[in-house]
Each structure stands twice: as structure tokens, then as C-alpha cells.
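Schema walk-through. Below, the input block comes first and the output block second. Nothing else is stored per chain. Lengths vary across the set, and this one has 360 residues.
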Amino acid sequence: MKNIEFLRRLFRVIMVLGLVGYFLLVSTATAGPANPKLDAMKKKAAKEGVVVYQGPDPATGLPTRNMLDEMSAVVKKHFGVKIRLKVDNALSFPASASKALMEIKSGAPPTFDLMIQTPVSGAPLLREKAIEPVQWLEIFPHIRANDLELKGLATVQWTMFLLPEYNSRLVKPQDVPKTWEDILDPKWKNKLGLLIYPDAWAFLSQPNAWGEEKALDYLRKLMRQNPKMGRIPEAHQRVVSGETPLAWGGMRERTLFHKKRGAPVDVGEEVSPALLWIYTAFVPRGARHPNAAALVAAAMLTKEGQELQLKYQNATSVFRPNTPAARFATQHKFLRPDVDFQLREAGKLYKKIRRILVKR
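--- output ---
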């Protein structure tokens, strides 16, 4: 009997040890391989504790403070570091880039720790080597090469597709443009909105698109339609009011957001190629809190981070798996900005474009 009781106890001990070993194995597998670079960054970020964020307010009308708090929560969930975000977005993207560049050139730390810019507005900082290099791919396993822009120095946070926007009450289905050339039809004269920005024409001037000659010739013809010029919000409001039933270009995601809420607007999705507007995040050189800023940018590329971008900007990255933007892109041709071309040609090209836009 003693032998039987001994064997029972031994069996129980073996079972317990086996279970302990199993759970230790699962725990180790779940934790993933050691990442010394990430661990070091997290320690430094915890000491920094704060990030001054230059980026847009929510496009969905939600409070900016809520957006920043939820961004902090995603950082805490994925990296275990508590970061407080403070926003400084009084200036436009180009003006913010100029300010940061001036500060860096003067030897002072830039105002911003984390900057949201397009490849075009951020190009001056890239040209002047004023972006802090971060080993995005080495430190963060979830980030892929396609998630990077500006020579690999910036992460793509979200993207939007520029396509014609129209008033669905005033434009008949058969009149909705199917190509960019359709907008040159005389019926749109004095009824057209046009963005004041030169970016679209710089995109279309790329060798992998229309090329400079065709793009600028098209723009000259478009100006003969006597379009009303404005920024994206102004062009959108004119379409909603019916002042201009058609806008040459609007942000597809923002247009559909307002459509769902009852605005009489829609998108000419058959037009090709769509122009891809990319919003990148990077750390300017000499930032006071570079490690905390890098964690914030990386956190926004997780599943929860992209859900947050959708909630507050109504946009996601076309390069992240299974996002709304990625699903749209599988069925539509789009044009991505060529950073090398923009760096090389944008200066003289922008002068030509502006002369056409202001009719001089």
C-alpha cells in the first residue's frame, strides 16, 4: 500500500512539474525573441515621458485630447511605456517643416518631437538631413519596408486617395467623370473647383505617370475652365453647397465620411490613377524626446493604431494588411509620389506650376 501511495504522489509531482514546464514554454513563446534594441528604447522613452506632436486635429470632429490620450493608451498596451502627448499644430505642414528646419540649422532642439508630414512637405527636411534616423525595421518586428517613406526615415501613418468629388444631387450619374480628361469637357466651365496645391501636378509630372509636358499641358487646359481655387476644405464645402458641382480633386476618405452623414457628395472612383496622399511620421534631428516619439509612431502601425487612425482621421495606411485603404487599392490603380523625383525636380517644377495656377 505504501508503494502505491508513493507512486501516486510521485505521479502528482510529475504532472505538476510538467504543467509548470508547459506554461513556461508557452510564456516564452508568447513573449517572442529578445529584442535588446527595443528594450533600450523603451527604457529611454520611459525617462522622456512626453512627446510634442505636430499633426492634424481629428478629421472626424472628435476631440483632439481624446485622440492623443488614446494614442498614449496604444503605446502603453504594446510597449508598456506611459507617454503623454502634447499637440502643437498651429502651423501648416510646410510652415511646421520650415520652423523645425530653421531651429535645427540654428543648433537649437526642434519644437516638435514627432512630425506628421507628406513626402512633399517633408522633403526639405530630408534634403537637409534633418530627420533623425531610427532603425524601424530592426527595432519593430511589425514594421515592414513598405511602411517606410522618405528614404526609410519616416513611417507611413495613413494614406488617402485624391479623386474627383461631386455633388450627387446636381451631377447626373452619366455625367460623373470616368477619366481625368472628362473634366476638360466644356460643360464644367465655371462649375469646377480646383485645389490650390501644386502637389498633384508634381505627382503627375513624374516619369512613371504623365510626365512634365503632358501634366502641365493638361493643367493649362484645366485653367481655361475658369475653376474656383481653394484648399481641400474650401473645395469640399463648395461641392456640398452646389457652388461648384464638381471638384477636380478631393480626399476620397473624407468625402465618403461626409456622405455617410448625409452630405450630397460622392467620389468619381472610376477615374484612374488615383493620386496617393501619404501622411508620414518622423523624428526631427535633435528632438528632445526621440525614443518616446519613435514608440508613438510605431504604435500607430499596429492593428489598434490603424483602428485609431480610422476613428480620428477616417483613413488607414494602404500598406498595412487588410485595412480599408489596402482593400480599395487591390481594385484601383494609384500613383505614389516618387521622392527622388520630387527632391530633384520639385523646386523648378513648382515654380512652373504656380505660374499656371495664378495665370502668370
